[in-house]
TrEMBL record:
Enzyme class, spelled out: ligase
Biological source species: Ruegeria alba
UniProt family annotation: Belongs to the class-I aminoacyl-tRNA synthetase family.
EC number: 6.1.1.19
PROSITE patterns linked: AA_TRNA_LIGASE_I
Catalytic activity: tRNA(Arg) + L-arginine + ATP = L-arginyl-tRNA(Arg) + AMP + diphosphate
PANTHER family associated with the record: ARGININE--TRNA LIGASE, CYTOPLASMIC, ARGINYL-TRNA SYNTHETASE
UniProt cross-references to InterPro entries, sorted A to Z: aa-tRNA-synth_I_CS, Arg-tRNA-ligase, Arg-tRNA-synth_N, Arg-tRNA-synth_N_sf, ArgRS_core, DALR_anticod-bd, Rossmann-like_a/b/a_fold, tRNAsynth_Ia_anticodon-bd
Gene3D superfamilies attached to this UniProt entry: Arginyl tRNA synthetase N-terminal domain, HUPs, Isoleucyl-tRNA Synthetase, Domain 1
Protein name: Arginine--tRNA ligase
Amino acid sequence: MNLFTEMRGLVLEALDQMQAEGALPQGLDFANVAVEPPRDAAHGDMATNAAMVLAKPAGQKPRDIAEALATRLAADDRVAKAEVAGPGFLNLTLAAPVWQRVVGTVLQDGTAYGRSDMGQGKKVNVEYVSANPTGPLHVGHTRGAVFGDALASLLDYAGYQVTREYYINDGGAQVDVLARSVYLRYLEAHGQAVEFADGTYPGEYLVEVGQALKDKVGDAYVGQPEEVWLEDIRNFATDAMMDLIRADLAQLGVQMDVFYSEKSLYGTGRIEAAIDSLRAKGLIYRGTLEPPKGKLPEDWEPREQTLFKSTEHGDDVDRPIMKSDGAWTYFAPDIAYHYDKVSRGFDALIDVFGADHGGYVKRMKAAVSALSDGRVPLDIKLCQLVKLWKNGEPFKMSKRAGNFVTLRDVVEQVGPDVTRFVMLTRKNDAPLDFDFDKVLEQSRENPVFYVQYAHARVSSVLRRAAEAGIDTSDAALRAADLGLLGHEAELAVMRKLAEWPRLVEIAARTNEPHRIAFYLYELAGDFHALWNRGNDLVELRFIQDGDEGTSQAKIALARSVAVVISAGLAILGVTPAEEMR
C-alpha cells in the first residue's frame, strides 16, 4: 500500500469528475500531477500541485481550480481538511483512520510492506568494487562495496531482477607488477634477501603467497629469467588475490553473482567484435586528436590513431581505442566488457566507481549508448573518499597492507553492521568522515546506534508484554482496535510509516540507497520521541496495566516500526538489534 499513490488516485478521480461536469476542459494531461509531503509539516499531511500544473493548459486561474478541487476532495471520508494556499497550492489533512490503517497494513504485509513492482522484473546489472586484484580491499573499496550492495538490494526490493557483478582487472600491466612482487616474496621464502623497487607491492599480505608458491613449485623458478615464470606466477598470484578479495567481501557480507575477467576478453575476438559493432555504425575512424587543454605535456605530439566517435553520443572529445603501434588502449576492453553486458540482455547498467574515475563517465556512457543504440541506459555512481579518524587523529595505514587501511582493518574495529550503515550516512558523491570513536557511541549523534536502539526498544516491549501475558502475535495485534491510537505523537509515527513505500520508489528511481539510512534515522527519531513522551504521559506507554486491548493497539504501532526498520536494515545489509549491550 502506497498511501501517496492512493491519494493521487483520489485527486485524479476528482479531476476526471471536474472534466465530466465541464469545470475543466477535456484532453488535459495529468501526468505531472503529484501528491507529496508538504515542505512544511504545519501545512498538512500531503500537498498536490494539480491546480498549478493544469492552470495554463486549462486556461484558468490556479486558485479557481484548487478551490473546486478542494470541495470535491473534502467530501471523501479519507480527507479531514482540504485547504487552498497561496496562488493555488492545495494542502490535505487526512483523517486519523487513514493513518491507523497503515499499522494494520504493515502487520499484514510484514517486511514486504513497501516492496514495489516499479521495476517490473527488468534486468539490471550492478557492477561494483571491481578492484585491481593486486592486494586486499582498502577503505575506499569498502564504501563502493557497501554502496553497490545496498543499491542492488534496493533495486531488488523495488521489483528489478538484479545481477551483482565484479569486473576483475586482470588484463593490464598491474598484474605483471603483482607477479614480480610475488616472485620477490617467493625468493624470500627460499631464504634470499630481496629489495622491493618502486612500483612493486611491498605489503606483507604477499608473504603467504610467496610461501604458497614455493610449496607448489619448489625451487623451479629460482634464478630463472622472467619469461620463464611471469605468466605462471601472474595466474597464481591473481587467483590468490581474488581468494583474498572474496574473503574480504565475505567479512562485509557481500556476495557477487558474477566475477568477470578482463583477461577473458583478450585473444578471444571479443574486443574485435565490440569495435566492429561500432565500426558498422560509422563510429570508428582514423584521425588525429586536438592537443589536450592547458599546458602541453613535453612528450605530446600529434599522431594518427584509431578513434571512437564518442562525441556523437554526448562525450566531449572522441576517444582513442587503438594506439599508433596497433595495441589496444585501456578503453577498448572496457568497451568490449560493456558490449558483453548489453549482449546479455540487461535493460539497464549501473557502474559504481571511485571518485578518481570522474573523467571516465562520459566516454563510458557514450560507448554504451552507441553499443545499444540508446536502448540500455548506463548510470555511473562515483563514491567519494573516506577519511578515517580515531582518538581525534587520522587512522594510520595498515602494516600488513603496506600503504593503506584495509577493509578488514575497518570491519575488525567496529563490525560489519556499523561499517555498512555508516558508509551510507552520506550520499555517495559526498566525502565521508568515519570516526571509529563516534560510530561506537551510544547517542543520538550516532545514527547506527539510534536506529538499532529503536528496534531493540520494540523488542523489549514485546518481551515485557509476553511476561505480562499479553498476546503479541501479529494476528492478535492486527485485530486490535487501532482507533485507540490518536495522540499526535502516535500519529507522527504512523505518518512516517506511510512514507516508506514512496521513499523506496524514490530511492530506487534515483539509485540512492543512502535515502534508506536517512529515512530509518527519521523513523527512529519519531519512535524515540513517542517513547520519551510516555515517560511523562502514562496514557502513551505501550503497556497499559490492566488494559490488554489498549496495550495491543499501542504494541501494534511499536511492532510496525520494528517491521519497517527490519526491512530497511535488510536493504542496507545490517542486522536488527534485539537488545543493546
